[in-house]
Amino acid sequence: MTLLDGKKTSETIQQEIAADVAEIKANGGKVPHLAAILVGNDGGSVTYVTNKVLACERVGFGSTLIRYEDDVTEDELLAKIEELNNDDEIDGFIVQLPLPKHINTDKVLEAVDPKKDVDGFHPTNVGRMVAGLSAYLPATPAGILQLLARYEIETKGKHCVVVGRSNIVGSPMSILMSKPNYPGNCTVTLCHRNTVNLAYHTLQADIIIAAVGIPGLITAEMVKEGAVVIDVGTTRVADETRKAGYRLRGDVDFDNVAPKCSFITPVPGGVGPLTIAMLLKNTLRAAKREVYA
Ligand code: NAD
Fold it and tell me: Record-annotated residues binding NADP(+) (predicted)?
């Protein structure tokens, strides 16, 4: 069994990006700049956005954090997005989700210029991804592709079972794994909350990608010998022995599943660290005008 080290892979990708930025600077080019809009004070969102801004600093990007209180109006938010769309200094920006209930998330995401949509959530980027055109890919699925590629995991003709169909992970993952290029070219099954007999499907999988948010959902009896298991789940569970008062648990019963696997990601330290690396990569691509040439 090989542990897929997301932390190490993320560091490698960030070093590659930093080297690229150093070269851009040396040639007098424009330093990539990411902006992030954060609404409210939700602990998880604040941590995610802070980590994204710190990561920008690490690789030499410029970064701007724009914060609003929970009671910001939709119009205020849309006006800021319009401003960022037209600001030549900003190469890409993200709106941290979830947004408060009084704000229409779809409307906000659609207001982002697709050329600056480094989260890959705008329908134009989703459509381009589905059509196999150059697009900003959502960071978590893109990170999983990187992990598969950098560990040279065979995917062609394999049966990949994706569990979870969210717009940010499961759904795009299933599409990308079905595409005729590496890593991909799989026969894909997409399972979700209404799937009847989940184990029937996962037992046939050469590759399982679990993105659900139910700790330990995937047990050893549901996994065939030699499978590749990618665990996207990160659920906070109470743990008094930790300083934070919680620890992260994945969707996979790691201790019992790992001995059956050819490759498996740990939680934490698997998929998680790659998400930030791929956001940086998208921002670099935005600055280089690579996606919409
Ligand atoms: P979501 O809540 O939007 O979607 C969960 C999906 O799981 C749904 O499509 C639902 O149909 C499916 N589901 C629910 N119960 C199920 C069951 N019993 N059997 C099969 N499918 C079931 O979640 P999401 O945003 O895709 O996130 C999923 C998990 O991944 C969460 O734990 C989240 O924290 C984590 N996540 C991690 C990263 C990262 O590591 N960077 C990024 C995004 C999400």
Answer: 164-166, 234
pTM of the complete model: 0.97
Q: Mind listing the pLDDT tens digit for each residue in 208-260?
A: 999 999 999 999 999 999 999 999 999 999 999 999 899 999 999 999 999 99
Strands of 82-201 (E only): list them.
Answer: 92-95, 159-163, 187-191
- Does ipTM exceed 0.95? yes
Sign of the dihedral through C-alpha 156, 157, 161, 162: positive
Atom of ligand 1 nearest to the CA of 212: 7
Q: Which residues contact 22 (CB under 8 A, 6 or more apart)?
A: 60
Q: Which residue of the set 5, 14, 52, 281 is catalytic?
A: 52
CATH 3.30.70.1350 is right for the domain spanning 27-113: no
**Among 230, 237, 236, 224, which residue's Cα sits nearest to residue 254?**
230
